[in-house]
Structure formats: C-alpha cells, structure tokens
Give the backbone structure.
Amino acid sequence: MKSVFVTVGTTSFDELIATARSPPALQALQSRGYQKLVLQVGRGSLPQPRSSSALAVEVFRFKDSLAEDLQSADLVISHAGAGSCLETLEKGKPLIVVINDKLMDNHQLELAKQLHRDGYVLYCNCSTLVETLQSMDLSALKPFPPGQPEKFASFLDQVLGLQ
C-alpha cells in the first residue's frame, strides 16, 4: 500500500495537518496512487475523523521513534525542522518540506531553500502544497549523501549564519 507520512515533529502545525487532509490534497495523492496517509500531529489539535476519505488515514501525536513510519513511507511531507529533514533524507525518502509562514524568525525557509537548491527536496508552504503534490517529479530529487552528520551540521551553521 503506497503511503504518505506527514510529520510536524515536536511542534504544532495545524495548518499543515489541515491542508494535507483537505479534499484537494487527498485527491492529488490518490491520483498519484497513494492509498494511506499517516499524520503525526505533535502538540497540535487532533483532527476529527472523516468518513469519506479517499485514503486510509491514521493519526497520532508522538512516538518514541518515527523511524518505522519514515521507513514505510513512500513520500514524506514535513515541517522544515532540521531534525525531521535530516532523518527523512538519511532514510532516502522523497521529501516535501512545508514552510510555516507564521514563524517569526523563519530559519526554516533558509534550510528548505538550500536543500531545494541542492536538489534534495521539494518545498512549498501550505497554500501551495496541493499544487506541489499535483506537479511533483520525485524522480528529479537527488539522494542525500549518507553518513556525514558533520557536513549537515556545517551546512546548518552556514545557513543560520553561525559560520
């Protein structure tokens, strides 16, 4: 069963969860052959179940590890937290990074832009997620170089202006 995993990490990002569950997003995913949607909502609101969903939907707040969910996903849609991005990329999964426009100091945007420029991810915001799902070409994404956390740390320092 082809599945999509949506994660907000330890934060809340209700707008991402609502957008991923919206009928246009579900239709876009279904048209791409996805049959299951797993939502990790973190500290956000638990969405109300919908009976007429085009995809099977599972929802949870937290788990000790997201490794199993990431491993079984065919596509990951994530907030732009560095930990979530790195863990997904290390698992070799296609990743759409969704920027939270409501954050004051939006360092996430810088991270997403650079990962996109380097060819590792697609990125968008909630208002363009459906369009991204409709037009995405996941085969164009490059694999993230494995096992080099020091390079990622250096990259983060550079993006955040700490270097």
The mean pLDDT is 90. Helices lie at 14-21, 23-31, 67-72, 82-90, 107-117, 129-135, 149-159. The radius of gyration is 15 Å.
